[in-house]
Amino acid sequence: MPDNVYSGSGVVGRTAEIIQQLDSPQTLDRLYGGEITAEQIKYKKWLGLYTRPTKGTVPLGALEDVKNFSFNKKTDAMVQRTGATEYATTFVDVSGTKTITTLNKVVHLSTESPSATNIDITFGQTSGAAKHIFQKPFFHASATATDSNLWIGEYLTGITIKGTPSGTSVVFEGGSSTTNYYRGWQLYNYTRASYIWVASSSKGGSDTTLILVENAPADYANTDVLTLYRHFHDNTSFCSSITYSTVSGRPPVALQQGNAVLLSGGMGTATGLKPIWTGYVNKTFFYGSTNYAAGINYQGTYATEAEIKNTSGITISTGTASSDATHLPDGRWFFCYVPETDDGQRGVPTYAGTAYIDTVSQKFSFTMTVYPGLLNKRLRYLNLFLGIAPNDADTTIDWNYLYYIERLDLLGSDWTWTKTTSEGYFLATCTMDGDKWNNKASESLAQHLGHTLNTSSTCSFSVGKFINNRLFVAKYYDYVDAVEYLDQIRYTPFGSNGIGQLNKLANLDAQTQSTIEQGDATSVQKLLKWEDKLVILKDGSSYYIPVSGDTSQWQLITISNNIGCKNPDTAIETPFMLVWCQSGEDIYGWSGASPFSLAQNWLTTFQALDLTTALSTAWYDNKNKTYNFSYYSTLGGWYSMFFECPIVNGFKWGHNQFGGLAYDTVTYKIISASERAGVVYLAVEYMFNTTYKTIYFSTATTDAGIAISPYFKTAEFALSERDAMKILKWYLSLSPTTGVGELDCKITIGSNTQQYSNISKTETLHSRGVLFPTCSGRKLQFEFNMDTYRVYYTALEVYSLEFDYELIPYVGDATITV
Q: How sure is the predictor about 39, in pLDDT bands with cuts at 50, 70 and 90?
């Protein structure tokens, strides 16, 4: 329908010259695939808002003027919205002890280890408002994924030993009936303060038998109280503290970190909000070691704090000097170790109780001791550093004077197993002499880590973004400063291995403004990536930093001093541009210049939407190339902007709504949304009975039991500036093979309307007569699935819309409405 017959906001037609062009079958066929024959106009393409590229302006209209598209098939065979398939209705952990009763957020991610795997992170509350974080699927003692929810930080407490432990066997009553459910877990004997690694487990009757990697300590008794911990072996107390924020504006966040997941419970002071790393681990520790040549295998999903701590399971002894021909230069020597993970994350240095030793024509030795039960299973290496103090009386040393000497491999054979009456341990003796010092690497400790932030703690945060292998965070709480920073950002430095060190988050003071725009005290709400730029959205302003490898070249560049974002969950990246909503104001797009409006054609309607009552969320749908955002209302729903359907000054918008009937008592709410591998996932809550489910858009033609109703209305249009229309009949052509459900329609001619219903694909060409006297008027409009008669689960593909008409002179006859 070319725009020479478009009439929005009451503006009728254009000029007689333009009207004459409508009567040209060549123009109609070339632009719109239609034809005019015997006073019939037919459109074979369902074009939505009909505009002509040769004309520069179109009258601004209401939202209905830009919602003309087919059911579930975007114009010209592009998908508007596919059907929805049920993804999950309940969230119960694999142990069956944690069931979510309140769903707060679901994030859909992907990892590649041990194979391409979709990972879902769910934040939800169990009865009593206890907050838990789930991961699905996970790997349990194998490379095969278990398609169940894993409670991150799972533990079993209140266990009492049954009978007398025998050798490596410990028995208790209760526990999981799944064989090897506790394999790889840590057994903590609260009575004896003892930590031992579990090799396997089995269930017999009501009893669970644990087989430990070593003999149970001799002092274990049947009155001892035990706790089993699946993860966080170097800091098991963290398990019971894990939580996340439900404070508005301080949400939890989950990000893909290479082959693992990094999550934080959101900005806040609680210890349990600190970042967590969860990923797949498969390695055999201490393989080939003396007295334990087989080593100890750990395989499966492991969760730990993202900060690589100086675990209590590893100790470094004081040095012991001895005379030797290959002695060190005389002086005060400092030595330490730095733990490192398989993926190159490095902790800060740990020194012995006395961090130095004085030598005179001597070398010195020290021992590294590892208790396997307390070992963080993410660790791989212990990097050893040595340095001589500039002054003999120094009690501390600058990191630039410490140099890398060698590393101990926790999977290697440099270890000796020693078993005592309590826990056993692996020990390695390290010797520092003149030869090692002379052959030291040129890499100092400061270069090794990429920073000198020994006292800087990791942060809990609500805004995070990976860009160019660095993690940037905002809206964070610094546990050392004990301060919440709302308008600052931090980033990860690079270590000498070229890997961004997430263990410590430096601030930006040395490179650019750590406080993003000193004159704007509002909060950073979102970090986005566009090309090599870190885009920073604050409440009422926006900026970017070009993130090059050289941090000294970074500059803070203003995008706008008066356009920001107070609805951060609506701000997303699309292949076309960055898009975000500013409640009560506009929808903005940005691709490198100035932000521009995307809601001009329905600004009044958008500004009236409630984006604040329930934090609105947004997603990009690659199937139909749309930006989508949800809003809050009694029925709930979302709007879609089609990048491949441009209109003047923007793009075409459409509307999908839950429920659909005015008397529907159910309130729907989209809790969270995410897109993974081209599939869109929505977590939807039914407020009527406080249940929820997650759905995903698929090739289905129904909507997973959720009543989703697409809605669209053609623009008002006129066929002549001089004459009124008399509509004789209209036709609707549908695909005979695609879709389900029925379609209702309302036709408006002037100010008169007629209703039609029960249109389905069983009749592929629908023809409807128009009854007198509501047959004439200056303007014509079609509305499908209108509010009062909305049909659920409709998924029909519209081929064409046609109508027969006559032009009749308009002479001010009051019976002919305009």
A: very low
